[in-house]
Amino acid sequence: MKRHLIRYLLAFFAVLITGYSSRRPTTDFDATPRTTIAYNELSDVKRFSSKTVNYSVFLLEDEKGILYVGARGAIYSLNSSNIMDGSQRTIHWEATPEKQTECLKKGKNNKTECFNHIKLLQRFNETHLYVCGTYAFSPLCTYIDDHNFTLPSIFEEGKEKCPYDPSKGFTGLIIDGGLYTATRYEFRSLPDIRRNLYQRSLKTEESPVHWLNDADFVTSALVQESVNSTVGDDDKIYYFFMERTGEETSSFLDKTQVARVARICKSDLGGKKILQKKWTSFLKARLVCSIPYYEVLKSAYTLDTGRWDTTVFYAAFLLKWRNMEASAICQYSISDMQKVFEGPYMAYQPNSHKWVRFNDIIPEPRPGSCITNELRSTGFNSSLDLPSKVLDFLKIHTLMYEEVKPIGEQPLLMKKNMVYTRIAVDRVLALDGTQYDVLFIGTGDGWIHKAVVVKSIVHIIEEVQVFKNPQPVENLVISKRQKSIYVGAQSEVLQLPLSTCNRYVSCYDCILARDPYCGWDGETCREATQEDRLQMTQDMQNGNEGCLDVAAEAPVQKNRTVLKGDDVLLQCDLSSNLAKAQWVVNGTESLPDVESRFRVGIDGLLITDTLPEHSGEYSCYAEENGLQSLLAVYTLSVLMELPKEKVDLEPTMVIVQLPTAASQTSSDMEFVYISIITILGGLCFVLLVVLLYVSCLQKRKGTYMVGNSQATNVELQTVSSNFKDKSDRGLNSHPDGCLQIIPGEATPASPTKNTPPPPPPPPPLPSEFTNGIATLPNMLRKMNGNSYMLLGQNEESTSPLYNSFTEELSKFLEKRKRTQLVEKLDESSV
Ligand SMILES: *[C@@H]1O[C@H](CO)[C@@H](O)[C@H](O)[C@H]1NC(C)=O
Ligand SMILES: *[C@@H]1O[C@H](CO)[C@@H](O)[C@H](O)[C@H]1NC(C)=O
Ligand SMILES: *[C@@H]1O[C@H](CO)[C@@H](O)[C@H](O)[C@H]1NC(C)=O
Ligand SMILES: *[C@@H]1O[C@H](CO)[C@@H](O)[C@H](O)[C@H]1NC(C)=O
Ligand SMILES: *[C@@H]1O[C@H](CO)[C@@H](O)[C@H](O)[C@H]1NC(C)=O
Ligand SMILES: *[C@@H]1O[C@H](CO)[C@@H](O)[C@H](O)[C@H]1NC(C)=O
Ligand SMILES: *[C@@H]1O[C@H](CO)[C@@H](O)[C@H](O)[C@H]1NC(C)=O
Ligand SMILES: *[C@@H]1O[C@H](CO)[C@@H](O)[C@H](O)[C@H]1NC(C)=O
Ligand SMILES: *[C@@H]1O[C@H](CO)[C@@H](O)[C@H](O)[C@H]1NC(C)=O
Could you identify the atom of ligand 5 that is nearest to the CA of residue 150? Predict the structure, then answer.
């Protein structure tokens, strides 16, 4: 066990420390979403919010076209075909002021806890819903008539069914009139799996061994194992939760939480004398994903495949070690779970305080099993008939010896520096006749990752920023009928289409996306239907076959003219994070490696300190998954001097590259730029810098240093290229592209080029006299899975050259930074 663990840990460190470059097993340890869709690029989103918060409980009734939503102090009935069509019905159900005062007296938080948080929202019968709320630390439940949708005047005590504390994990299902809930109940916060309402009430056992140890519940699911069962099996309910471990005794692992799966039989009636009103079918097992003891179960999804024996469970885990975080998705089969529950038990040895494998004789019928035909035929008609020796055994042997391991014994997907909070899965029949599982995964900061499982590898199709303000995704529900996914969070409910195929503009784009909902019909990428299976192109297996037209779109054709010594950026914006730019100059494959003046960044080719011989034709190809497509062709002309009629125009800024000692940690000196910027009127400059400094002081972290502002020379240097901080992902991080300029140690300026005469005011120039710096895209996308950041740049060609010093300076800085970032990524990935 311990050796096992150490091996896992070593693997974990290898992964996290070397940034996965040294070892690359079948699972990519930091999967990259193919495309990134920021909040402002979203389309076709429907939003619903009202005056309240915490839209976290959903009940979708697809046939009726209704999505019920439980929030804080309210229940909504929304039209599932369009949640914002204004036809919603609302039940306000707030805790009374007296209850809130009482709650305050209990020392609870009046901002979060002393409200009526709806926790349970389930269909009870044809006419009524059953609802429970925390009701300011004093839970209540009630039946709601779905026809007139009003709050009734009669309530039921809820403490057996609902937690007091809204932050406690809760899961509840109504199955055949029985209410199955699992949470920490009452003031003492004791964890329990209970059945209430219709059938005989049942609980878990507390003595002599707690069946549940500080459990925090995540979810539960019914699996109808009785359907077409040849052995007359019972339906089972599976519970997913975290729990304090009992079976490990190593001191450093004490009190660690482990993930568990437990199950009970639906027809359980409890024991007659022993385990009276207690489950006689409760069994639990470890659920492992990638690094045991360091993973926290965040969400689980049960994929109903139409037959119970092919049921698949998906689970999202958060892996934590020191300040490192990663998320993992694992996939489990019900047959693996069954094997574990039918395998050996664990036994507790009180003397050594150890859990060990139970090797003695197991009583018959097998403890914890459901009542089957075989048992019925031997006289055990229900759990009430079970013999005492079986129940006595079960009382102290509810933990299974084996662990439930994921399919393939490893995670399907891992993602560094990401918290996955919720997962939902849709099984889609693709055009190749195969079914693919599409995962929708919500993150802790309000994004949705959409991924597809192809041959036990996960391909993340896209990541979509669905909430402007970062907030955890708390619920995800898929409606096949509405072709929508509903997202619940603190601030609102969203309805998103399952696919947005028209985002893919070319056949290649459509194929490379590997979105099983989408296909290329010869003209557009659109929703694939089985009817036009023959006409449409899709390649789920490889993601690169079937497109006939090599150049689907005409590439961008542009002329660029610059002066000798200028820097020029030839923009080539790859829409896919998985694509690599390939530049071809004058028709030959490779870039001339002239003193490393060429650098390929994620958004283009930067040529620094241009010389006339750099003129030529530059073509940018996007290379992805073995496919190449031409995106842009530039004709670059480097002039010795400006054309005659513009001879009086001097550039306002002369950028001079200086040799420098390696001051960066990087092995190459080439990242280090020391540039002297000579400027018009020294006084003017100081004023501008001060202005900029003051206005941007609070806006960003010190990423750049600009040298001593009193000197006429400044040093531009990237201090940190590590943008791992999550806050940098948000759209509102750098809304104005401001730079913080802080005094730094500027190296003395080179004497070579010094203080040119003050140039005339900036003249307008023909738009082709731009060096491309103004044409950066609005958002810097994904950078090898590490970071994002935003650039608030002007749109293409609207800004004339040499607008103002500050603008030019900030553009220059950004350009440098971005180009350096790309080259330094591998070092920042730890
Ligand atoms: C409800 O929302 C508030 C903020 O809007 C948040 O602080 C709180 O944790 C949420 N409560 C639950 C139970 O989700
Ligand atoms: C929901 O909206 C659709 C289309 O707007 C409409 O046809 C349908 O009747 C509505 N359903 C309900 C339950 O109001
Ligand atoms: C919560 O309690 C604090 C201090 O007791 C009080 O200042 C605040 O107004 C209360 N807030 C609400 C919403 O009642
Ligand atoms: C559903 O349950 C409610 C509450 O117990 C009851 O009043 C109602 O008559 C039931 N409806 C049907 C159709 O059984
Ligand atoms: C809601 O409808 C039920 C029967 O459909 C009725 O008994 C009840 O009084 C109605 N409630 C209100 C508030 O109208
Ligand atoms: C059960 O068996 C019937 C008849 O063989 C079949 O039609 C049905 O699809 C089966 N159901 C499941 C869930 O396997
Ligand atoms: C089980 O049920 C059968 C038929 O319903 C009955 O004959 C038998 O006595 C029952 N056995 C017990 C132990 O109750
Ligand atoms: C680029 O310049 C060439 C000749 O210099 C001209 O024929 C062509 O139209 C120009 N292209 C663009 C896109 O301006
Ligand atoms: C491209 O070809 C032109 C002439 O055809 C030549 O002047 C130029 O130097 C070449 N550019 C590069 C980068 O080789």
Answer: 13
pLDDT at 779 over 70: no
81 lines ligand 2 (CB under 6 A): yes
Q: Where does a domain end: 604, 639, 674?
A: 639
Nearest to 220 by CA among 145, 151, 129, 120: 120
Is residue 320 domain-shared with residue 385, that is, in the same domain?
yes
- Tell me if 41 CB under 6 Å of ligand 5: no
CB 799 within 8 A of CB 807: yes
Average pLDDT in the 389-411 region? 94
User: Cα–Cα distance between 149 and 69 in angstroms, integer?
Assistant: 13
What's the pLDDT tens digit per position in 49-77? 999 999 999 999 999 999 999 999 999 99
pLDDT band at 608 (very low <50, low <70, confident <90, very high): confident
**Tally of domains within the chain:** 3
Strands 35-37 and 457-465: parallel
490 touches ligand 1 (CB under 6 Å): yes
Q: Answer yes or no: is the C-beta of 276 below 6 A from any ligand 5 atom.
A: no
If residue 737 lies in a helix (H) or strand (E), which one and from where to where?
none
Angle at which helices 805-828 and 682-696 pack, to 10 degrees?
60
Give the 3-state secondary structure of 655-671: EEECCCCCCCCCCCHHH
354 with 375, same domain: the answer is: yes
> Does position 802 have pLDDT exceeding 60, yes or no?
no
Q: pLDDT tens-digit profile of 181-192? A: 999 998 788 899
3-state secondary structure 766-809: CCCCCCCHHHCCCEEEEECCCEEEECCCCCCCCCCCCCCHHHHH
pTM of the model: 0.78
Distance of alpha carbon 308 from alpha carbon 175, whole angstroms = 16
- Please state the atom number of ligand 8 nearest to the C-alpha of residue 635: 1
The answer on pLDDT for 329 being more than 50 is yes
Per-residue confidence (pLDDT) for residue 643, from 0 to 100 = 66
- Of the candidates 355, 389, 418, which is a domain's last residue? 418
Which of 122, 128, 148 has the most ligand 4 atoms within 8 A of CB, as the residue to mutate?
Answer: 128
Q: What is the per-residue pLDDT for 767? A: 39
Tell me the residue range of the domain where 358 lies. Answer: 204-418
Any domain includes 180? no
Q: How far apart are CA 725 and CA 645, in angstroms?
A: 50
Ligand 7 shell residues, CB under 6 Å: 379, 381, 385
**Residue 23 clears pLDDT 60, i.e. is over it:** no
Judge if 262 and 410 occupy the same domain.
yes
pLDDT in tens, 696-747: 443 333 222 222 333 223 222 222 222 233 333 333 333 333 332 333 333 3
- Cβ partners under 8 Å of residue 262, min gap 6: 193, 238, 239, 241, 282, 283, 284, 285
CA 61, CA 521: separation in Å to the nearest integer? 33
In terms of Cβ atoms closer than 10 Å to its own Cβ (0-12, 13-18, 19+), residue 771 is: buried
Atom 9 of ligand 7: nearest residue by CA position = 379
Together in a domain, 247 and 381: yes
9: number of Cβ within 10 Å: 15
Q: Compute, in angstroms, the gap from residue 128 CA to the centroid of ligand 5.
A: 11
Residues 380 and 354 in one domain: yes
Atom of ligand 4 nearest to the CA of 125: 1
Residue 82 in contact with ligand 2 by CB distance below 6 A: yes
**Together in a domain, 567 and 531:** no
| Residue 292 binned pLDDT confidence (cut-offs 50, 70, 90) | confident
Whether 127 is in a domain gets the answer: no
CA distance linking residue 298 with residue 219, whole number of Å: 9
Q: Which atom of ligand 4 is nearest to the CA of 145?
A: 3
